[in-house]
Design a protein that fits this description.
This protein is an alpha/beta fold and 658 residues long. It has 4 domains: 225 residues, 4-Layer Sandwich (Glutamine Phosphoribosylpyrophosphate, subunit 1, domain 1); 211 residues, Rossmann fold; 83 residues, no CATH class; 67 residues, no CATH class. Helices cover 43% and strands 14% of the residues. The chain contains 27 helices and 18 strands. The longest helix is centred in the last third of the chain and has 19 residues.
């Protein structure tokens, strides 16, 4: 895992932006503290910070240049099938000088051209300078696991692994995209499109290549992977789905464990992370390092399931029990700095501290992102499946009623509120709502004031609106929702959070469920294998049944990285610290939310009338973001940069004549 950055001027006579790229790389030091370098050639400058994971020698140094000096790459990520690709390329006559996957990308591009990315199994964001064609190729992996941002105008094309890298090189980019603020505040929506919180700074979409023609200074965009349900079904879903799931999972985990440094994994106690621990342990002779964020609070306590997995697998468990002791605001400042943008909810706090602890033992960590979105792990998915079945007839409709009965038995009548087809069920839900209404008359809730400040609404209307499209991709609602949660509404934000939290402590996070083979299998799979007999993730549960304790395999409860932030907000000194941020003169004068609406939500939370912790968290990080990125560029790095680290600079002409 690394950081990449680059600047290409449109004027070919303008000297390469060596100092600017050096500045960009320094602010991204946390992503690559082991090594660094800058390549310059004419108006092109490419920079790199290295976190050494594969081939720890200087053979893996970047920017990496091909043996003939015609290709130069800066790269962030891992190509897990690099050994297999290397053998294939060697059979084709290619000669390698290192053991790194970076060199495999160079040879693969030289052999297959831009189509090389379709051969890669992994996560990546890279920029490759083809001196022969005078082109820069930027590429991002199929699901956007690794980040890449860019800015383009008539004068310059610039890119970086994190937005702060672009801001360090181009301070003029520190301008608020008010349409994104308007989009984000009520919902927490983040990374669901190419726009960012900064005007004119864009995220390269997943599964996308951009080619910059340096001479014409124009860009062309190509999508190299997209949904193909029939092809995925034909490729992965012909045999027993449980056996296929088991094979793909083991193959993916084995590939994701390839490393020349220690590898561990997060363990939340849920099915996805527990499966990773158990699968890793079957592939290793020594105990797996696991890291778990635990709290004693009701609704947050995962210790029973974590300890069950630890006993069953004999892994080496590490329990992290973060409790803010006057340092909550400082942690939120650091989290906001590393995230580059405001964030949606307090689960990041736990993840941040898990990564902080993991840094002492491992340099690579596996995590379970994607399992819920691929195999329908969240409880609201049950209602979607029930509605799909109830929309049918005969035995299909009967299956819908049986599923509803199972949902009511295991999750309660409240879980049926999203089911529209059954009159009987509707009557039960109406009766429940009427009973609640009787109790609510005891205390009439106070009307909520307007959410947005008129000033924000006006600034949002003056710019480009944020528009999200969701064209239907599947005939059934469950499969369609899972697809959009994978590519737009859930996974992109979760990957953003995990990448920045792990890289804050120079840890490479890997996500085996997002191996593209598992994703394609899931996208082609009949939903009957995802939800069956009121069980979510049925095919995954059956696949891992032999390696997990039953209490985890067939666990129904789901907490989802819980953090007792609601309680902390009611305790001193956390309450006073965050109150001062929320009601600061600077936040009020930004005219994002009315003061009376802030007072309303704060009072609701402090009195216990409603849990507003997520909204308060969102507002606090929005203000901290303004202070750290808009008012000034004010670092709050989790790990200080070593002052002695200097990049190695190489130039194109020197290489060409060597």
């Amino acid at each position: 895992m690394c950081a990449i950055a680059g600047i290409i001027w449109s004027d070919p006579k303008r000297p390469a932006a060596l100092s600017e790229v050096d500045t960009m790389c320094k602010v991204l030091y946390h992503r690559g503290p082991d090594d660094g370098g800058v390549y310059v050639d004419g108006a092109v400058a490419l920079g790199h910070r290295r976190l050494s994971i594969i081939d720890l020698s200087m053979g893996g140094h970047q920017p990496m240049v091909s043996s003939d000096g015609s290709l130069i790459i800066v790269y962030n990520g891992e190509i897990y099938n690099f050994l297999e690709l290397r053998r294939e390329l060697e059979d084709a006559g290619r000669v390698f000088r290192s053991d790194s996957d970076t060199e495999v990308i160079l040879h693969a591009y030289d052999h297959w051209g831009e189509a090389c990315v379709s051969h890669f199994h992994g996560m990546w964001a890279f920029a490759l300078f083809d001196r022969r064609k005078r082109e820069i190729l930027l590429s991002r992996d199929r699901f956007g696991i690794k980040p890449l941002y860019y800015y383009h105008d008539n004068e310059v094309f610039a890119f970086a692994s994190e937005i702060k890298g672009l801001l360090a090189g181009f301070p003029r980019l520190r301008q608020v995209n008010h349409a994104m603020v308007y989009h984000f505040l009520p919902s927490g929506a983040l990374d669901d499109g190419s726009e960012t919180f900064f005007d004119n700074v864009y995220s390269l979409p997943a599964a996308t290549n951009i080619r910059l023609d340096i001479g014409k200074f124009t860009i062309q965009t190509d999508v190299f992977w997209s949904l193909d349900r029939d092809a995925f079904r034909s490729r992965w879903c012909r045999s027993d789905p449980v056996e296929t799931m088991r094979y793909l999972l083991r193959s993916s985990v084995a590939a994701h464990m390839r490393s020349d440094v220690p590898v561990g994994t997060c363990l939340s106690g849920g099915l996805d992370s527990s499966t990773l621990v158990a699968t890793m342990q079957t592939l290793r002779d020594c105990p797996v390092y696991t890291f778990s964020g635990l709290y004693p609070d009701r609704g947050c306590d995962e210790s029973f399931w974590v300890e069950a997995v630890e006993r069953h697998t004999q892994c080496r468990g590490n329990h992290i029990r973060p409790q803010p002791d006057g340092d909550l605001l400082a942690d939120l400042q650091s989290i906001t700095w590393h995230q580059d943008e405001p964030t949606a909810g307090p689960g990041l706090y736990t993840q941040f501290h898990v990564m902080k602890r993991a840094r002492a033992d491992v340099k690579v960590i596996l995590d379970g992102q994607g399992g819920d979105e691929l195999f329908a792990g969240y409880l609201p998915y049950l209602a979607l499946r029930a509605n799909d079945l109830l929309a049918g007839s005969g035995r299909t409709r009967l299956s819908g009623y049986l599923l509803c009965a199972g949902i009511a038995r295991h999750a309660g009548l409240a879980a049926l509120s999203g089911i529209a087809e059954s009159a009987l069920l509707n009557r039960a839900v109406r009766a429940m709502k009427q009973a609640r209404a009787v109790w609510s008359r005891i205390k009439v809730p106070e009307a909520e004031p307007p959410f947005f400040h008129p000033g924000l609404a006006a600034r949002r209307a003056a710019g480009q609106p944020v528009i999200r499209q969701r064209d239907k991709q599947y005939p059934d609602t469950l499969s369609d929702t899972l697809y959009w949660h994978l590519v737009q509404q859930s996974i992109p934000a979760l990957l953003h959070y995990e990448d920045r939290n792990s890289m804050a402590f120079s840890i490479e996070a890997r996500v085996p469920y997002l191996d593209h083979r598992i994703v394609e299998f899931a996208l082609g799979l009949d939903p009957a294998y995802k939800i069956r007999n009121s069980w979510t993730k049925w095919v995954l549960r059956k696949a891992v049944e032999p390696v997990l304790p039953d209490c985890v395999t067939w666990r129904r409860s789901k907490l989802g990285y819980p953090t007792p932030f609601a309680r902390w907000l009611r305790q001193m000194p956390n309450s006073a610290q965050l109150y001062d941020v929320l009601f600061s003169r600077s936040f009020i004068e930004r005219e994002l939310m009315e003061r009376r609406s802030l007072e309303f939500y704060w009072k609701q939370h402090q009195t216990g009338a409603a849990d507003r912790s997520w909204l308060i968290y969102r507002c606090v990080t929005l203000e901290l973001w303004h202070r750290q990125f808009i008012d000034e560029l004010a670092p709050y790095s989790a790990v200080p940069m070593a002052s002695s680290v200097q990049p190695v600079t190489i130039t194109g002409p020197q290489l060409a004549s060597a």
